[in-house]
Design a protein that fits this description.
By secondary structure, the chain is an all-alpha fold. It is built from 18 helices and no strands. Bound molecules: 4-fluoro-L-phenylalanine.
Length: 442
Amino acid sequence: MQREHWGSRIGFILAAAGSAVGLGNIWKFPYLVGAEGGGAFLIVYVAFLIAIGLCVMIAEIALGRRAQANPFGAFGRIGGKGWSVFGFLAVLTAFIILSFYSVVGGWTIAYIVKTLTGGFVGYTGSEFESHFGALVTDAVEPVVYHGAFMAISVLIVIKGITGGIEKASKIMMPLLFVLLALLVVRSLTLPGAMAGVEYFLVPDWSHLNADMVSAALGQAFFTLSLGMGALITYGSYLGKKESIPNAAMWVVGLDLLVAVLAGFLILPAVFAFGMDPAAGPGLTFITLPAIFAELPFGLVIQLSFFLLLFVAAITSAISLLQVVVAFVCEEFNVARKPATIWVGLAIFLFGVPSSLALGVWGDITFFGMNIFDLLGYITDNYFLPLGAIATCLVAGWVSYDSFTDEVTNGGERPFAYLTAWKWMCRVVAPIAIIWVMIHALL
Ligand code: PFF
């Protein structure tokens, strides 16, 4: 059967940028920058994003396109049999990450529904706080919304690459930019906003230490959706004529742009209202709604913000779902429709304990962590880096010649930084990633 292809270059770029731009950009990035030294962190982060993230992304897309297969098949075909273990690991990682990512995605739907039905009218800061606590610890409501989030992901992926993922990305990514731009303007025009901009941008080099460097590299990987097969899978549908380095540059650029804009949205608002910028996830679901509620047209602003979060989350979720669906379809010869439905259901069920871990199952812990935190910890610190290292080694050493061929389109489109890219994949990226893994252990 003919493999599906993206309808256009921009379709691929928007879908891949949709995968990259997610909750990681909007809730994690701004407070990470603030907490880790502002502009100092930003400089280190951008250096990693370009030097290492971009290189690994090029390798992942090339691996997928060369093999014309899902990550498991791709590693086996290009690296050789033994390497398929890493492909399987990538598929497993996508499965696990989506199971808890979808729980958080479900919260964004819950907030949209509550805003639309007038449930937040007249809420004060402490009411938002107790609302968030009550929502995530409830045994039923967040599970239902997690199910709704998975159902929407299934409905998109079931329609295929062009008719589902590409079409959804082409509608949602422009919407994301419009919402983001409106919210940034609102936030920057608040009295006292500049203090937030300063916190975000002014470098404080006293933060430059191993913790900061490791956080910057970890964030660069997560935000670019590397190490779990998403770009291998999306790359496998990329037309042979497209330039991989060029497409990857667009994706990295868009991801960085959204992260920086999210910083300009969140930190100025937090400072204008004298709130704590280090509040973490609570910042998104408690602090910001409370701030928006006090502004004129507060509910519209709130609705735009939760819609923004939802769009960011769903375009990432579909890329993870597609990884697993492509694996099941290709390795077990299952048609797309049943594969999508069964995989979606399995991920939903697997995610239920993560949701319950924040409430009724909160006492069940492993190594001192509940299931939600444990899954995040293992995938972030072990699975994801292992997947990325394996890609680098296959690209740089095992099958360098076929990667060179793929990255340059058979020599037709020379890649000016080919040698630099090769040594990044061979030595620099693997060492940097191993260092971060060891650092996480200590
Ligand atoms: N890049 C997404 C984010 O920043 O939220 C998360 C993610 C999506 C990671 C898809 C991995 C992935 F395959």
